[in-house]
Amino acid sequence: MQKFMKKRRPAFTLIEVLAALAIIVVLTLALILTVKGQVEQAHQKDVGLMVSTVNAQVEVQSTDMESSKLSAINDVKGLLDAGLISTQQYQELQKDHVKVQQSNGRPTLSTSK
Description:
Elements: H1 14-61, H2 67-71, H3 76-81, H4 87-95, E1 99-103, E2 106-110
Antiparallel strand pairs: 1-2
């Protein structure tokens, strides 16, 4: 009879496997949240750089424009229509809800956050 009884090998129990999976899930969620925060921070810096670039671009290009045309620009679409920004810049600025304000008779961009 002992011939048929196999020796038990040590193995993980179901509870040990579930505990290991739970730890892996918690660590994965922590990693995802950290990466998401880093991506958002990088995006905000990208928007800030885009705003700085466009403000410099508007300042340089506006020297050739009439002040009445410049003072009439009060949104990002107006910057595009005046030829001060490209279509790609317009799309990025629209997506990020950038505001246009008048400063010293020139349109100036600012972020809403």
